[in-house]
Amino acid sequence: MKKIVLICSVLLSLALFYSCSSGGSNTKGSSLVIYCSHPLDLMNTILDDFKAKNPDISVDVVTAGTGELLKRVEAERANPLGDVLWGGTLNSVKSKTDLFENYTSTNEDNIIDEFKNTEGAFTRFSAIPSILMVNTNLAGNIKIEGYEDLLNPALKGKIAAADPSASSSAFEHLVNMLYAMGKGDPEKGWDYISKLCANLDGKLLSGSSAVYKGVADGEYAVGLTYEEPGISYMSSGSPVKVVYMKEGVISKPDGVYIIKGTKNLENAKKFIDYCVSLDAQNMLVEKLSRRSIRNDVSVTDIIKPMSEIYSISDEPNVVEANRQKWLDKFKDIFTSI
């Protein structure tokens, strides 16, 4: 009898193990894998709250630059290992529409009209103006008010800029420079790009975090980056200031996207909905110095109103059609110099 009981127990254990390991109802949908290009502070702040609100979901995160993560999603398209790509501006991701699932958030009605998901796969997360971040100690009396000032010989080799093929914020600066210095015609902006590349003195960083960290740590006098880290370092007392380029600032949204073929679709949808929820968007503004894409969030004095910034715009269709061409041209110019 003891042997029979023992055999039954073993069989029951095997049955339970098989059910769990093959995706049975006990574990199905319990996990979420996020590919993230955001700064760690933003990522951890948002994820801690999401996990507190969804304790049944086990979250794993893979961090890297937007360019690297997009290559990973593309390489895994036959067998996706990630569920969500979180980060990357629309200009960087739109050409990869076929890599993402269509999904409209339950919070879409509260999104500002210009940031609504009209394409199906691209949920906006925040609005990100391009800026110059200046180390006030290193820059000293050097005037830095815009792109033209970066051509000052006194700044040669002291400018932090990332590879636009690896960093979405660097690509946004490339687009911003082409339109601003070309006075609305991006093809007329390449002369400026050539002069800037010469003043970079062969230094091109691998990712966006290296830019703002390099400026804050005193390795560079000025960096081409985006608003959030500049404001965050400034607010924490670092010797930096944020400069909105006098030639014009383009502000583009980044997003959060469900990877096509995800194994955890429902959890991916929950994360999308959470990212554009009122709680998460208020946190963006109040704790993380980001601009919200909702029409009902709180306001803060830390973030300069867009009405006080000279704003210009790009042409999304032109940018999308020329993305790779512009990346190749920038590479040719930089390497030739």
TL;DR of this structure?
It contains twelve helices and eight strands. It has helices at residues 2-21, 40-53, 66-75, 90-93, 136-139, 168-181, 190-200, 208-216, 227-235, 265-275, 278-288, 316-336; strands spanning 31-36, 58-63, 84-89, 123-135, 159-160, 222-226, 240-243, 251-258. Strand 1, helix 2 (40-53) and strand 2 form a beta-alpha-beta unit.
What does this structure look like?
The structure is a single chain. This protein is an alpha/beta fold and 337 residues long. The chain is 41% helix and 15% strand. The protein is built from 12 helices and 8 strands. It has helices spanning 2-21, 40-53, 66-75, 90-93, 136-139, 168-181, 190-200, 208-216, 227-235, 265-275, 278-288, 316-336, and strands at 31-36, 58-63, 84-89, 123-135, 159-160, 222-226, 240-243, 251-258. Strands 1, 2, 3, 4, 5, 6, 7 and 8 form an 8-stranded mixed beta sheet that branches. β1, α2 and β2 form a beta-alpha-beta unit. The longest helix has 21 residues, at 316-336. The radius of gyration is 23 Å and the shape is globular.
Task: Report low-confidence residues grouped into runs of 5 or more.
Answer: 1-28
Principal-axes geometry comes out as globular
The percentage helix is 40-55%
| pLDDT averaged over residues | 90
Order of H and E elements: HEHEHEHEHEHHHEHEEHHH
Distance between the termini: 85 Å
Number of strands: 8
